[in-house]
Fold these 2 entries.
Entry 1:
Amino acid sequence: MTELSAHTFTSRRHTTRYWECGPVDGPLMLFIHGWPEIGLMWRAQLEAFSAEGWRCVAPDMRGYGGSSSPTASEAYTLSEIVQDMVELHDHLGGRPAIWVGHDWESPVVGALAARHSDRGRGQVLISVPYFPDAFALPNLLPLIDRKLYPLHLHPDGQWDYYRFYLTHFEQTVSDFEADIPAALAFSVLDASQH
């Protein structure tokens, strides 16, 4: 049994820091964090599953923690992030794995299952379902409960923050970067109230 440790993998495209514990020859389980988190948020799960013999890995996704953070918004497309995970998976040996995705990274796990089915033994999607046509605002709008979010008051329903993020990307980034600890503390507080 190995203790939780940080590692770095670098390809020509990207650098990924990842957290790992468990036997190297154990079955592989990858934990993909959501927004705004880092791989270490999975610490309890990594330790629990590794104690059962699993090799557990939790990367800091592109733009988070110790992984590279490209400045261009197009560097954060689903296809780019899926390719990061393909490269990391190859680096880890490429054996079929259990993939666990949380929040905005659930679509990454769904896309991996759809496009690279040989890489998975199973998938777990937490908080956000997989949408074959992309996790995009036009695909989410029909799902809004208009009794809770009347159209005239909430055209984007509970997804108003997503619209703001899409239309004011630079401002969103600068607002978060102005006080990162406060932004993360607020997101944790906000999530605990729902």
Entry 2:
Amino acid sequence: MSDKTRIVCILGPTGAGKTAISLGLAERFSAQVVNFDSRQVYRDFPIITAQPDASEMEACPHHLYGFLETVEAITAAAFVDLAKETVDRVLPDLPLLVGGTGLYLQALTSGLAPIPEIPTEVRDRVRGRLEAEGSPALYRELEKIDPEYAAKTHPNNRQRNARALEVYEATGRTFSWWHNREQPPSPYDSLKIGVGLDLDDLTPLLEQRIEKMIDSGAVEEARRAWQKCPRPEAPGWTGIGCAELLLYLKGELSLDEVKKRWAANTRAYAKRQITWFKRDREIKWVEPGAVDEVSALVESWLAENVTYG
């Protein structure tokens, strides 16, 4: 019998139906949902980042959604600390970790590499380049230095691109090298369930979801957020959907152009997520809506141990 804390992880690409699976499980088990999506932490973008709506959150307790201001950033290490504290509070209910940020899940279940402290002068130099040259320029450099990590981020992800370059400059080692080092044993016994679709089948669903977001008030949500935080460099604005809608608010793109770019960037992000998760052989893949199958997997897994933690 394992003495580790047991957690169920519902993961997969954006738009695949993770929320529906988690709510289906919550109806059948004494469970609480813990977010591990890096964009759904932002308070001002619940529609654009597809956070569970009010009725979904009423179905069972939800944690770590919409707690961060647009101007604030959070590292993977800081998020993992919050997630660990939350999992401990959820017990003895079953923690359901739901999201699509593979790095956060890896950091939680396997630990983060002990990257040395970055000297202030290095950090300031890289951040200065970020402001002067822009995130895409740093991303192009990252593609040459560390293509493995570049495949996991995005040209507009200011925080991750700058962090990867400052680590390389300070240590002489790539971010991927640090992440691939042997990690300490995980404190968790994890059941990983992936909600998956072929990218070609997922693509029209992503386009439909964007239309639904627009109809649900995504433009108005972005306009309110811009009035509150008119700083395009703020971490909250770097997310897919947020960045594109900001171009519309600034008059640089039409709404149709925004939707096309938003859909293309979302598809590219989903492709990177699928690539990341497919490397993890522990993930048991199911189709969207397969609540009965997932419930059976969870029930069988829990039967191996009578307690969650």
